[in-house]
């Protein structure tokens, strides 16, 4: 990517827009040429043909939509500056089309298509400056530079969002030797533990064939596994791969892979652990009764949750250490306990009681984010409109996620009436730790009877607009981990129920 030293004066008055994380990753890959033949964000026709048949409008194979969502106010602009979250301009979009997503009923959601009613801008992008990168920036390289270093000859690519364990390392060495190929490892960034992934791959570099290149690529996963694999083949080809080592998903027949992929896909020979000689090797060479069952992702997760060691026969110790750091045992892992319920339901009372009980037990750093306290401090100035209430919950979620990220236990007690906003907070927290949702389902009549502040009376008199439970809805959660009714439970009993849940889940020790 050739970046200009500064922004031409003519661009200073252009409107600017900060795309979301996935679109920023797409922008970088467009600018570097990793999304070749694409040179910009797709319009409505290309998007429709890609969704329908995995091809651009001109017939070129391309597996997924690459679109840019913007506010409606930008749809009349001929050019828009695209910037990173810190406001640093990265590129200029020359707008060729402004379009709106058609009805959701016409779009398969699994393809990763835009959300219905979103507005989009299409057109080529030209770079202003390279994106700033954090850890491992020295490994991030343009495809042209990587292709030049690889030179002629066979190049076997591996694209991965997970560490390579002993089985995968053996399969990779075998395939590279059979093809007489240089190996290109492309860790795909866009998950919650990108740095841990790169560290785990660097830790096994000595077990990879000589000359292996490792180049991180910003490519968040698409929801459709088959199309995601096809996209990875296009990116690998841009970096110089001549073939891609990959297990084909069941919903992607080999013929479709050959048609929609940019390079041939090489399926690894099945390998297993031979318990008789204690090595991984091709399954065909092992006596059936000597095949040791492989750890499933669920098995691995359970070991990490309990803090038990990952066996050396499964993965190298350095990889096991990275896995343990990325997913500490639940007793040391950050967790958010999120109470939701009507005003007066008893959320704050139970939340404070829980915080006190956990402080008494010790062993955990506790942060209590009570709804009323947050309103006075973190969200001072916000109204009770839906937009401001959502913003208040997002702020609580952001703080809770930061507490969780650093291994703390955050206790939140807002009303949080809307399911979509609660789901947003759950996603935010779950990227860095665990999330426990508790619905304090005390009946409305009981909440009104307890109305110490007179809020319900004012709401029924029309003095408080958009009051949850009266003039604004409360969307009861269907995904709560625990439901409490404080009209039937004393506060101490409710706190005990939450403690039992946390102990059963492994986040605290049983008393």
Topology:
Blueprint: E1 16-17, H1 21-32, E2 40-41, H2 44-53, E3 68-70, E4 79-83, E5 89-94, E6 97-100, E7 119-127, H3 143-150, E8 155-160, H4 166-179, E9 182-189, H5 194-203, E10 213-214, E11 217-218, H6 225-238, E12 243-245, H7 254-260, E13 265-266, E14 271-274, E15 279-282, E16 291-292, H8 297-306, H9 317-326, E17 335-340, H10 347-361, E18 366-370, H11 371-376, H12 386-405, E19 409-413, H13 419-430, E20 434-440, H14 444-449, H15 455-460, E21 482-484, H16 491-505
Parallel strand pairs: 1-4, 8-9, 8-12, 9-10, 9-11, 12-13, 17-19, 17-20, 18-19, 20-21
Antiparallel strand pairs: 2-7, 3-7, 4-5, 5-7, 6-7, 14-15, 14-16
* Morphology: globular
Broad structural category: alpha/beta
Total helix count? 16
For the sheet with most strands, the description reads: 7 strands, mixed
- Cα distance, first to last residue? 59 Å
Number of strands: 21
Radius of gyration: 26 Å
Strand content: 15-25%
Average predicted local confidence, pLDDT: 91
Unreliable stretches covering 5 or more consecutive residues: 253-257
Kindly state the percentage of residues in helix.
25-40%
Description:
This protein is an alpha/beta fold. It is built from 16 helices and 21 strands. It has helices spanning 21-32, 44-53, 143-150, 166-179, 194-203, 225-238, 254-260, 297-306, 317-326, 347-361, 371-376, 386-405, 419-430, 444-449, 455-460, 491-505; strands at residues 16-17, 40-41, 68-70, 79-83, 89-94, 97-100, 119-127, 155-160, 182-189, 213-214, 217-218, 243-245, 265-266, 271-274, 279-282, 291-292, 335-340, 366-370, 409-413, 434-440, 482-484. α5 (194-203) packs antiparallel against α9, α10 packs across α16 and α12 (386-405) packs parallel to α13 (419-430).
């Amino acid at each position: 990517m050739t970046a200009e030293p500064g922004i031409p004066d003519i661009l200073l008055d252009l409107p600017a827009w900060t795309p979301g994380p996935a679109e920023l990753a797409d922008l970088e890959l467009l600018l570097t040429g990793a999304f070749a033949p694409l040179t910009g964000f797709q319009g409505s026709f290309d998007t429709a043909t890609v969704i329908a048949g995995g091809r651009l409008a001109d017939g070129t194979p391309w597996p997924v939509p690459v679109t840019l969502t913007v506010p409606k106010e930008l749809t009349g602009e001929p050019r828009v500056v695209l910037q990173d979250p810190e406001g640093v301009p990265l590129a200029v979009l020359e707008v060729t089309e402004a379009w709106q997503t058609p009805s959701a009923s016409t779009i398969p959601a699994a393809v990763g298509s835009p959300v219905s009613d979103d507005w989009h801008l299409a057109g080529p992008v030209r770079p202003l400056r390279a994106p700033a990168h954090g850890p491992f920036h020295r490994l991030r390289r343009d495809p042209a530079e990587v292709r030049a270093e690889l030179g002629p000859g066979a190049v076997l690519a591996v694209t991965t969002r997970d560490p390579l364990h002993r089985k995968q390392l053996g399969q990779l060495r075998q395939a590279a030797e059979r093809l007489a190929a240089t190996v290109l490892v492309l860790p795909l960034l866009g998950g919650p533990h990108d740095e841990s992934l790169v560290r785990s791959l660097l830790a096994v570099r000595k077990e990879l064939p000589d000359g292996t290149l490792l180049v991180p690529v910003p490519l968040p996963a698409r929801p459709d596994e088959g199309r995601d694999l096809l996209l990875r083949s296009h990116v690998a080809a841009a970096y110089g791969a001549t073939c891609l080592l990959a297990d084909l998903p069941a919903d992607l027949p080999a013929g479709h892979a050959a048609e929609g992929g940019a390079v041939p896909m090489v399926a690894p020979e099945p390998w297993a652990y031979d318990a008789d000689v204690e090595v991984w090797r091709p399954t065909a060479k092992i006596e059936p009764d000597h095949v040791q069952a492989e750890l499933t992702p669920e098995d691995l997760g359970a070991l990490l949750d309990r803090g038990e060691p990952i066996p050396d026969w499964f993965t190298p110790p350095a990889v096991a250490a990275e896995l343990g750091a990325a997913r500490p045992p639940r007793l040391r892992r950050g967790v958010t306990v999120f109470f939701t319920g009507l005003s007066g339901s008893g959320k704050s009372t139970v939340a404070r009681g829980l915080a006190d009980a956990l402080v008494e037990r010790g062993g955990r750093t506790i942060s209590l984010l009570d709804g009323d306290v947050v309103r006075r401090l973190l969200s001072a100035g916000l109204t009770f409109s839906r937009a401001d209430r959502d913003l208040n919950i997002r702020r609580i979620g952001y703080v809770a996620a930061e507490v969780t990220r650093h291994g703390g236990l955050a206790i939140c007690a807002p009303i949080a009436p809307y399911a979509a906003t609660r789901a947003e907070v759950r996603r935010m927290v779950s990227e860095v730790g665990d999330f426990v949702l508790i619905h304090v389902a005390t009946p409305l009549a009981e909440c009104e009877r307890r109305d110490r502040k007179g809020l319900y009376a004012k709401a029924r008199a029309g003095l408080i607009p958009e009051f949850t439970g009266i003039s604004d809805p409360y969307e009861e959660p269907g995904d709560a981990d625990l439901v409490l009714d404080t009209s039937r439970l004393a506060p101490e009993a409710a706190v005990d129920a939450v403690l039992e849940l946390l102990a059963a889940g492994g986040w605290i020790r049983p008393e």
